[in-house]
Specification:
single chain, alpha/beta, five-stranded mixed β-barrel, 7 helices, globular
């Protein structure tokens, strides 16, 4: 980790980020709005390249609303064959760089039948259906304890603030539970029905490993899902990544306005 941190610090100088943002599928354009320092993942020691469409694979450091922010344009996914250590490695690096709050965004499918594509959902909790945990293995005691409490991964205080901001902006939002599966195949109708019975409102293939890791190392977490499609068995057409990217593009103005105002109050 230290080699990654040292390389990044050489590039950013005395810039110390307070806020980290993970930009999910189709949401990476948010970072392009700001003049800052852009570092491709491929240049950073021990970082992997990002290969999925809608994930540019860069760290962007910028001052937004007088706050120092580091943004991940794209993330690593477990379904790409990465280990959980690789998937969550950037979170640990951002912690070492100084962030105190992490905003995790994703594109997700609606499990709750009352949700619609283009909704924004604040994550209140999650269900880990990935069959593993990012904290398995050696514990780095300088970052977090061996058995961390997960009773409030997603900060209720941050959700409250974000809800009020959305209301003032006139942006419709939902609040619910996110379920994470491994992918890369989309879930079957039977699996979606199971997740609904378990209490999930949205489903995706990311976020949970990063959220667990962030909570473990003492970072405040806000999770935002962009509902880009109906999950399997709800809609009447096959699911595709193209639809995910297209819907994310349609809601990027609301997403951008909401994110800007959230950053302002952090």
């Amino acid at each position: 980790m230290q080699s990654s941190v040292n390389y990044i610090k050489e590039k950013i100088g005395d810039f110390i980020p307070q806020i980290g943002i993970i930009l999910g599928s189709g949401l990476g354009d948010f970072a392009d709005s700001f003049k800052g320092i852009v570092i491709p993942y491929s240049d950073i020691p021990d970082f992997e390249e990002a290969h999925i469409e809608g994930h540019k694979g860069c760290l962007v450091f910028a001052c937004i609303e007088e706050k120092n922010v580091v943004m991940m344009q794209g993330r690593y996914h477990f379904y790409e064959g990465h280990s959980m250590q690789t998937v969550t490695y950037p979170v640990k690096i951002m912690k070492k760089l100084g962030i105190e709050t992490l905003i995790i965004t994703n594109a997700a499918g609606a499990v709750n039948k009352n949700y619609s594509p283009a909704d924004l959902m604040f994550i209140t909790d999650h269900i880990n259906m990935m069959g593993t945990n990012p904290l398995i293995g050696h514990n780095y005691d300088n970052l977090g304890v061996r058995f961390p409490d997960m009773s409030e991964i997603y900060s209720k205080n941050l959700i409250y603030k974000a809800e009020n901001i959305a209301k003032n902006l006139g942006i419709k939002t939902q609040k619910g539970i996110y379920a994470a599966t491994t992918g890369p195949s989309y879930e079957t109708p039977a699996e979606i029905n199971m997740l609904r019975i378990l209490g999930a409102d949205a489903v995706g293939m990311s976020t949970v490993p990063e959220a667990i890791t962030a909570k473990w190392c003492g970072i405040n977490v806000l999770g935002i899902s962009c509902i880009t499609n109906y999950a399997s068995g709800i809609g009447n057409k096959p699911l595709s990544h193209k639809e995910v990217i297209e819907t994310a593009d349609k809601i990027k103005d609301n997403f951008t306005n909401l994110l800007m105002e959230i950053i302002k109050v952090l």
